[in-house]
Amino acid sequence: MKVQQVSLIESDWQDQLTSINIEANLFLLFVSPEFKLKQDVLNALKKIYPNTIIMGCSTAGEISGITVKDASISLTAVKFDKVKLKKVSVTVKNMDCSKEAGKQISAQLQNKNLKHILVLSDGLNVNGADLVEGLRHNNPHVSITGGLAADGSNFNETFIINDGEIVDKTIVALGLNGEDLRVGFSSKGGWDSFGIERHVTKSVKNVLYELDGMPALEIYKSFLGEEAHDLPSSGLLFPLSLRVYENSMPVVRTILAISEADQSLTFAGNIPQGAYVRLMKANIDRLIKGAQDSAIGANKELKDTSDLAILISCVGRRLVLKQMVEEEIEVVREVLGDKPCITGFYSYGEIAPFGEFSPCELHNQTMTITTLSEC
Description:
By secondary structure, this protein is an alpha+beta fold. Helix content is about 20%, strand content about 40%.
């Protein structure tokens, strides 16, 4: 397995492309919405590498090595020597199609040699929790990681890179096949819960209407104070901790949109009626420790031998860390060592199992890491 990484900016992207010197069978592109020449880049890649898989998405920040950038493309060329790749994609009409889309992807990728699925999804028109449920349908024992595309903190329009096309309302997935693949993964947060636990008394899928019988938006605004004026973007700083059952592992949910008309909140994943939620806030030291713990989990099996590390971190973490954002990338590098190329992006949602023997889940506000190498 060979990996080569370049960071493209508009002024010299053509020169950077010519520096790629491996016969890649996969290109991963994490693309700033601000990068105006993205279609030109795709056209050039398709011309030079007509048979190479190209996949990627829009971001809220591009991770390249230990740097976090804007208005760039983090491009990673990968040559697998033994692992066989298969890319599939599905278009959705709306969020209600998310679970079925996941099932379709799972069915198309299913085979006895499937080892791992890497998935990238539209970040605004797909219910991430339903997507994950569908992905698990045919492949309950296959590891799945990935994330939801982002649009900075604008929540306006995200896109997916599917070979030479820039599309929305699309999910693209890569099946990695063969016993020669070695994969590690982990997803950790570092947020603190505060305040009382609230009962979800009315919700439909990922739309929350009432907490303890009161309008959800009204309660949420009362917690945020002055920050409420900047919703929904300020909601990234105050996600919800959700537990469905008394002994279940809590997951974090981030706001995507609000509705003054019905006082509802729309989240990146489902908020089941009957569940319990608590507000969360950030602690910078704990966020960085969360990234470190995620790296330790992803590195456990590969022990500093991975060739590629894909980091997907939530945009909310970036907004909290601000100028310290690269510190969470640096601690990952310290754990993984100097060998792997590091790429990734800031997202609207992260997809990964909690642990080695846990089912895949949609997460928010985590640092999710996938490490890859070949035996």
